[in-house]
Specification:
2 copies of one chain form a homodimer.
Chain A (H helix, E strand, L loop, with lengths): L11 H10 L9 E3 L6 E3 L5 E11 L11 H17 L4 E11 L5 H18 L2 E4 L2 E3 L5 E11 L14 E4 L5 H15 L14 H8 L5 H9 L6 E4 L4 H12 L2 E5 L7 H9 L4 H7 L6 E5 L4 H6 L3 E7 L5 E4 L5 E3 L14
Parallel strand pairs in A: 4-5, 4-6, 10-13
Antiparallel strand pairs in A: 1-2, 3-7, 4-7, 8-11, 8-12, 9-11, 10-12, 13-14
Helix pairs in contact in A: 1-3, 2-3, 4-5, 4-8
Chain lengths: 347, 347
């Protein structure tokens, strides 16, 4: 059965925006004006700071529409943008979405995209307050600006970690990367097959982590309940190595993490083995996990572990650099990409 | 002499951002955290509302790098984004810029782009507080999010116009459109010429209006000095017809504007004549003027005209629709694009 296909040009820009934003209701108490004017209006409560972040995702670079369902993509762009706010201990409140549209994308696909956005927004209590659409010469381009708020004393920067602080990690790492590897493999294998039936059985968790990553606002709730305010925090979008090094650079410190403490899901290890990849490399450099990496004072060790959050290492002096310690006691210097290096003898 | 050309890949994403944002200092009193963390932090003063808008511009659709100097482009993207805030009577305070980069753009060109952004930001007292860079499969993509603030009683919506209000217009219309026509003509004419020398003499004003449009925050100052708060306001990005119709739709009213009152610059008329184009069409539908269209109560006529602002018509009942009145008394129904239509007899 052929799917209905409406060209964007048939609706025009204003008609399209009206259609896509239908069913979005502004509910957040700080939203004063949502879609429909030149700009959105937000009025934070007294003592609250506003947090702002923007991300632009490109078809062919950040996502591949041959296997990325539009609904999931809509959900994921919200996570990608809002995760930066969560990493500062803020609650998301508003979102603006700009689209660059290629003519090959029909209105129905955009409705699916917005259904995903709507679902993620509803889950987090976020209002859609603006955006625009334009033609793009090539693929789909999605630009998302996210707004959040937090009482100023609770905003967590990257820069507050100090020596002896514990390095804590939510969830597990490398699953999103392996999900992407699986999708890419099936795309390659089935490129010339008429009715492709990709084999995903047993790896559903990996697909979900890549296609539909969840925001870890639940972690903020847990920490708030325990009255834990991290000394520094960052979200894991580029990979543990790169993001930990960013945190350390901002905090002017070093770090030591322990290989055997890095949480890796069973499906991640299994698929990595099947594909002859190193699951530790997936965890260190895979990226797109959208888990949280944060530091707390040493005194909070028990409290954090009681929440089921892994402590994977601790903060050191800046001149010690960032290292991964293997079970046999070797120190490997972390790098933003690629394999960790064994340091020269004089380090 | 060959220009120096550094590939973006030589610096990496973090190196590039460091280079481009060097020399941007956060100065606005509401900025708490600028570039360098997961998100920017803004703390508005009590009683102030925050205004947010986002625009994404695409090479080949919104600008042509064969004749658009990078510095001007940087300046213009700030105007394009911030103009939406000005149109709500807000003062711009923060800006975030995301880039999608094609490999053909060297680091030096991006430095020029950021010099233009820096110049516009300095002129308006705006802080650059964030953004990211990614690869784009094709041309340059620039996504800008602008943040402004205003005391809540002074925020002007599109929706406040009522019957008998005067329709006021800053500056003149159609100049940016004619500037674009001139650039496109010279590009066509000189496409196969080895050392092209485009002929722009006598039309410098048109080029400036297209390549380097200025924000009309000066108009906000004038209105504030006279204690005039418009009942409704919109910025002219799509063209007078389309934007006036948007304002009327939001305000649930009609409008009548008078052809002979529409301000058109001499260079606009001259080039239009030379190119066999209708200057009135350029004014009605050209777009990209970034002037302000606003309404005030009838009682303010003298006050507004004393400021040198043109009154081009007045607001009517919704069922009367939006019309352009010609000097011989004909009523032409405005359309979002194309020539105004003469209404059927029964209207």
């Amino acid at each position: 059965m052929e799917q209905k296909r409406t060209e964007v040009a048939a609706l025009g820009e204003f008609g399209l925006i009206d259609l896509l934003t239908k069913g979005f209701e502004a509910k957040h108490p700080t939203t004063r004006c949502a879609v429909g004017d030149d700009a959105a209006v937000v009025e934070p409560e007294a003592g609250q700071q506003l947090l702002l972040t923007t991300e632009t995702l490109f078809e062919g670079v950040d996502f591949d529409l041959t296997y990325f369902p539009m609904k999931h993509l809509g959900y994921k762009v919200v996570t990608v943008a809002v995760s930066d706010l969560v990493a500062m201990n803020a609650r998301p409140s508003q979102l603006m979405v700009s689209l660059g549209l290629s003519s090959k994308i029909p209105v129905e696909a955009l409705e699916d995209l917005y259904e995903g956005i709507r679902f993620a927004c509803a889950e987090q209590g976020i209002d859609l307050v603006g955006g625009d659409t334009r033609a793009s010469m090539t693929g789909l381009v999605i630009s998302v600006t996210a707004v959040g708020h937090a009482p100023k004393e609770l905003v967590v920067r990257r820069s507050g970690a100090s020596k002896h602080d514990l390095i804590c990690l939510t969830g597990n790492l490398g699953a999103a990367f392996m999900g992407l590897q699986l999708l890419e493999r099936e795309k390659r294998v089935l490129a010339d097959v008429a009715n492709p039936e990709p084999q995903f059985k047993g790896y559903e968790y990996l697909l979900e982590k890549y296609l539909k990553p969840r925001l870890r606002t639940d972690v903020l709730d847990m920490l708030a309940d325990e009255k834990i305010v991290p000394t520094a925090m960052i979200d894991l979008s580029d990979g543990l190595s790169s993001d930990l090094m960013q945190l350390c650079k901002s905090s002017k410190c070093g770090a030591r993490i322990y290989l055997e403490r890095i949480p890796i899901a069973r499906q991640t290890s299994e698929l990595a083995e099947e594909m002859h990849l190193d699951p530790v490399m997936a965890a260190l450099n895979g990226g797109e996990d959208y888990e949280l990496l944060f530091t707390v004072p040493l005194s909070m060790q028990e409290q954090v572990m009681r929440l089921g959050i892994d402590v994977i290492g601790h903060i050191t002096d800046e001149q010690e650099g960032c290292h991964l310690v293997t079970p046999d006691g070797q120190f490997m210097r972390l790098r933003a990409q690629g394999f960790p290096e064994q340091p020269a003898k004089n380090e």
